[in-house]
Automatic annotation (TrEMBL):
<keyword id="KW-0328">Glycosyltransferase</keyword>
<dbReference type="Pfam" id="PF00535">
    <property type="entry name" value="Glycos_transf_2"/>
</dbReference>
<dbReference type="InterPro" id="IPR029044">
    <property type="entry name" value="Nucleotide-diphossugar_trans"/>
</dbReference>
<feature type="domain" description="Glycosyltransferase 2-like">
    <location>
        <begin position="5"/>
        <end position="169"/>
    </location>
</feature>
<keyword id="KW-0808">Transferase</keyword>
<protein>
    <recommendedName>
        <fullName>Glycosyltransferase 2-like domain-containing protein</fullName>
    </recommendedName>
</protein>
<dbReference type="GO" id="GO:0016757">
    <property type="term" value="F:glycosyltransferase activity"/>
</dbReference>
<dbReference type="InterPro" id="IPR001173">
    <property type="entry name" value="Glyco_trans_2-like"/>
</dbReference>
Amino acid sequence: MCKISIIVPVYNVERYLRKCVDSILNQTFTDIEVILVDDGSTDSSGEICDEYVLQDQRVQVIHKENGGLSDARNTGIESARGEYLGFVDSDDYIALDMYELLFNNIQKEAADLAICGIYDVYENKEPLKKTQEYMVLDKVAAMKLILEAKIVSVHAVNKLYKKNIFDQIRYPVGMITEDAAVILSILENTKKVVIDTQQKYYYYHRANSISSNRFSKKDLDTIQVWKENESYIEKHYPELAYVAHTRVCWAYFTVLDKMMNSKIADEDKQKQKEIVSFLRDNFSFVIKNIYFTRNRKISMVALRIAVPLYRKISLLEENHRKTKNE
């Protein structure tokens, strides 16, 4: 038995894996086990995992057939022996005191879930520092923050969970928005959440990652998940319905922007029309919405006028984003 089980899904990340695992094994909080789940890697990632087993008795490796990120996480959850669970993606790394901070906060506040801040890391660019905040919330207030997506994100990886939260929860296999799919269930199983936005998790953005900016059919999962989340909120927490619908509109914009920046198949053009129709139907909601930025509202006006105009604005935004992150 240990205090914290840290689950690391591994798939073809030989370039990044050592930096990731070293940052975990060198944590100032040492009562950990590290579960490396080699998800059928075809590069040397599996061999690197095996090396760590020989170097540190806190490491265990599970080699399995490729099943995707969710399946690898679920495999790790089922093998975990700790009182608490953490997740780290194998192309990212963490500050050496991340788990000490999260564990101390969860103990101090008698919380079920602790969250820290994230650095967004791009090639050849210094990560941006953000304003630090500290708060202790009940589950409803935490849900509102998650839906707002300003202070707290749905990411699984910058959090420390009481293990029993996952007694009845597993990540949905085959879905790319797995974090969003389970976040409300996770929060439903908490009474108290502590948030300390000190940035301790380094989230590496690479061009060929799963979350790339080119459209694929799996991106439609984003819409499906947030619509399901909205239905749950409307049923159980109607006071959050406004921000839940905002998140649904955000999901539609996210998918449409990817479509605008991609050459989509003929079979997807009908889906694009449906997305445009949904957003046009929500024109007033978006324009009056306190959460959408001025630029997003301008693009909403463009979409109402003509899709090609929206595409031009979307491409300009994408080029600006790329330039900013180079």
